[in-house]
Design a protein that fits this description.
The protein contains nine helices and ten strands. The chain is of the alpha/beta class and 240 residues long. The chain binds adenosine-5'-triphosphate (ATP).
C-alpha cells in the first residue's frame, strides 16, 4: 500500500466531519473518492495531506506513520495536492508558477527542464510567459496539475479537478491522468460521474463522514446503498 488510514476521524466542534475511516490505496491505482456534498471528502484528504489535524486515527504513507508530519514534510516524501479552488499565483507567469513547485524537488538548471516538460504534458507549452491570472479558467486548472507533476509526486491528490472545465477540456484531462498514472498513484475527488467511471480503477464512496462503499466502477454503479445515498434509491445516480 502506498497510503493507508486507520480510524481516521475529525470533529469540528460537535460535528463529526470524518468518522473512523479505514482507507487503503495501492501503488499505481487511480482511485476516486466520491460522495454527496458535505460527506467529508475534502476533510479526509486534508488529513491525508497534512492540512487538517485529525482528532483520532493514523495516516500511513509507504509504511511510515506520518500522522504528525506537517504538510511540507509530506510533500517531500512525495505527496502533491491540488486544491478545489485554483491556487495559482495570478501575477506570476505560468513558468514562474511551475518553477515554485519544481524547486521543491529540482535544483538549478533542472528546474527549466522540468518546466518545459510538465507544460508540454498538460498542453500549455505556448503559455509559458503569460501571466497565470490571464489564462482561461480551464488552463489555470491544467497549470495547477502541472505544478503538481513538477514535484514528481508518488501520490497526486486532485480535489475536483474537472470542476468548471469545458467538455473538450475534460477529454484532455482524462488522457493526461491516464498518462500520469504510469508514474504516480492518483487520488481524485470528483463529482463528474462520467470522469469517475471512466478513469478510476476503484472508487470509495463517502456519506456522513464514513465510508459507505468501496469497489470497482461496476460494483459502485450497481450498489443500491450508493444509489440511495445519491437519490433516495430511485435511480442509477452513480452512472451519471
Ligand atoms: N473548518 C471547518 N469547520 C467546521 N466545519 C467544517 C469545516 N470544514 C468542513 N466542515 C464540515 O464538515 C463536513 C464535511 O465537509 P467536507 O468539506 O469535508 O465535505 P465534502 O465531502 O468535501 O463536500 P463537498 O463535496 O461539498 O466539497 C461538512 O458538514 C462541513 O460543513
Amino acid at each position: 500500500m502506498l497510503l493507508s488510514t486507520r480510524g481516521l476521524s475529525k470533529q469540528f466542534a460537535g460535528l463529526r466531519a470524518v468518522e473512523g475511516v479505514d482507507f487503503d490505496l495501492p501503488k499505481g491505482e487511480i482511485h476516486a473518492l466520491i460522495g454527496p456534498n458535505g460527506a467529508g471528502k475534502t476533510t479526509l484528504v486534508g488529513m491525508i495531506s497534512g492540512r487538517i489535524a485529525p482528532t483520532a486515527g493514523r495516516v500511513l504513507f509507504d509504511g511510515q506513520d506520518i500522522t504528525r508530519l506537517p504538510a511540507h514534510r509530506r510533500m517531500r516524501l512525495g505527496m502533491a495536492y491540488t486544491f478545489q479552488i485554483t491556487s495559482v499565483f495570478a501575477r506570476l507567469s505560468v513558468a514562474e508558477n511551475v518553477a515554485l513547485a519544481a524547486r521543491r524537488r529540482a535544483h538549478g538548471g533542472q528546474v527549466n527542464a522540468v518546466i518545459d516538460e510538465v507544460l508540454e504534458r498538460v498542453g500549455l507549452p505556448d503559455r509559458k510567459d503569460q501571466e497565470a491570472g490571464d489564462l482561461a479558467y480551464g488552463h489555470q486548472r491544467l497549470l495547477e496539475i502541472a505544478m503538481g507533476i513538477a514535484q514528481r509526486p508518488r501520490l497526486l491528490i486532485l480535489d475536483e479537478p474537472t470542476q468548471g472545465l469545458a467538455e473538450g477540456e475534460i477529454e484532455g484531462f482524462k488522457i493526461l491522468i491516464r498518462d500520469l498514472a504510469q508514474e504516480a498513484t492518483i487520488l481524485l475527488i470528483e463529482h463528474n460521474m462520467h470522469v469517475v467511471m471512466e478513469l478510476a480503477g476503484r472508487i470509495t464512496v463517502m456519506n456522513f463522514g464514513a465510508v459507505l462503499a468501496e469497489g470497482t466502477p461496476e460494483q459502485i454503479r450497481a450498489s443500491r446503498e450508493v444509489q440511495a445515498a445519491y437519490l433516495g434509491g430511485t435511480s442509477d445516480a452513480a452512472a451519471g
